[in-house]
Write a structure and sequence with these properties.
alpha/beta; globular; Rossmann fold; 31% helix; eight-stranded mixed β-sheet
Length: 284
């Protein structure tokens, strides 16, 4: 791990800088974080989390089947929209080596797309699910095809995803409400369908603003699929959430609602559909 990368990180507990220490990272207050595996561990997911290995495999490989095997456009509207907004943001920056954070990176789809647009950039993928990060590491950093068998969803033969072989991707297990990054260092932050899964969406947006430099880009998508009455009351619709985004220190450049994001469910091509809000903004 390079000194340049370590300089981007900070202790999420006490906000102090980190240094190497016996195969780990540590701050002056002796908070120690493991970094000898496929991702740096700043936080742990719950043992009861639904985002286990079976969930990660289903999510990643059913998408790959839809996109790469059946060539279904049903799964692409969201990712193509995000990719176009990333390309616009990068063109405005005119910077060849941006620092890009994918907050809620899952199994790595958005990073894989963004890396094609900014091959010399530094990518920091953040997720709380260890299962998703383990799969993301194989897909993003590996060079061999990654396979899974999903007979419960109608697939008798293994499904495969090509390894991307990206050396400029660092994965961290961390909470979106307590990001392990220094202030004002990132050029672009992606948050694809994460916001309605965190405990405090407003705090997540404040953290996004904290780690972005002035003028840095935020690209946010969410189906507003809240799970608590308090969240529905605070963020009932697109305009309410946009107001919160602006109050957290962003100027909204463009937004559109009701983009249909579809997840393929099985070999027959059945889908689950979400009406999604897409926001592109800049840190004020």
């Amino acid at each position: 791990m390079s000194t340049q990368l370590i300089d981007l990180l900070r202790c999420p507990r006490c906000r102090l800088p980190l240094q190497r220490q016996d195969g780990a990272l540590a701050c002056e207050n002796k908070h120690i974080f493991r970094c000898d595996g496929p991702y740096i561990v700043f936080a742990h997911d719950s043992e009861q989390s639904k985002y286990n290995q079976a969930y990660a495999n289903r999510y990643a490989f059913l998408w790959a089947y839809g996109y790469e095997t059946s060539h279904s456009g049903l799964v692409e509207s969201l990712y193509r929209s995000v990719g176009a907004l990333v390309a616009d943001a990068l063109a405005e920056m005119r910077k060849g080596d941006p620092i890009i954070i994918d907050c809620g990176c899952g199994t790595g789809r958005s990073i894989a797309d963004a890396a094609m647009l900014a091959p010399s950039g530094q990518f920091l993928g953040v997720d709380l699910s260890s299962a998703k990060l383990e799969l993301a590491a194989k897909i993003l950093r590996g060079t061999k095809p990654v396979e899974a068998i999903l007979p419960d969803y109608g697939f008798g033969d293994p499904l495969s995803i090509s390894g991307r072989g990206l050396s400029n991707v660092i994965l961290v297990q961390a909470d979106a409400l307590q990001l392990p990054f220094q202030d004002s260092r990132a050029d672009l932050l992606l948050s694809v369908n994460l916001l309605d899964r965190v405990e405090d969406p407003t705090l997540a947006l404040r953290e996004a603003r904290r780690v972005l430099r002035s003028g840095g880009a935020l690209i946010l998508t969410t189906p507003l699929n809240w799970t608590k009455a308090s969240q529905w009351n605070m963020y009932p619709d697109a305009k309410a959430l946009i107001s919160v985004v602006e109050n957290c220190g962003f100027s909204v450049k463009t937004w559109f609602d009701q983009l249909l994001y579809r997840e393929i469910l099985d070999a027959r091509g059945s889908v689950e559909e979400f009406a999604t809000l897409v926001i592109s903004g800049r840190a004020s």
